[in-house]
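Researcher: Re-running this chain for the archive, since the previous output was lost when a drive failed. Same request as before.
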Amino acid sequence: MSSASRSLGVFAMLMAGLFWGGSGTISRFAPAAALNQPLALAWTRLFFGGVMLCAAALAVRRRGVFSTARAAFLAGICTAMNQTGFFISMDVLGVALGTMLVIGSSLVMAGVLGCFLGEAPSRLWWFAALLGVAGSCLAAAPGSSGASFQVAGLLWGLLGGLGYALLGLNLKLLARRGLGPLESNGAALLWGAVLMLPLLWGRDMSWLATGRGMASALALGFFPTAVPYFFFALALARITVGQSYTIGLVEPLTAGLLGLFFLGETATAVQAAGMALEFACMALTGWDALHKS
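Model: Regenerated structure tokens:
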């Protein structure tokens, strides 16, 4: 892989993390009925994001999109695993601890799974990943102090992390088969939405029929879903799975900064130290990706 291609991969993953990081901020503008149903919001993101990517793929390629749907089924399972495990773990453990568990575990899992693709992580990557996990723990520590730790929440969080790591592995394999980022991600997101449908049973989704609800759904589908997943696939085709996930720590970093500057949230010294470690992790991984032969 050329240096220019690796540079594009690093840039694409940074962009993916930046857009992913805006999810929480955009969600705040959804109707109150939606804010009380995080799984419904997750499904909305997957469905509308998937539709947008598939529509773009049809407009650009006009063929091969429907055959991609079959190939992307496993990626769809991973997407559903990630979203379900992530939101249930947050409900059981609290937002901070649940997020830390999913992101931290996915970093390590992505590095290990990359070995099956011939992408054994370097020692520098493992050091950067250690910094990233430590940073995630510090950033979550203050918020998790009031959370009730439960084994069920731990298992759901690990399931979410595994789903996220396996998603990258599957998207990498789809890219190696020559499938484009629009159709592969679009199909994966739609499959994930289909598989999550049973979780919506009995939930009030009438907020989607309101103007504010539909505007929120379209915004969630485009900005923190369709756009970053497109960049995610671009990155996976150019840098290793492990590098993609550690650089992807820009997501919680972005979310934290948006909370500070736009939502009136505050950060303790411990949280600031955690964010600094996450930044160091991204910087080291970017160096590793750009200088790896």
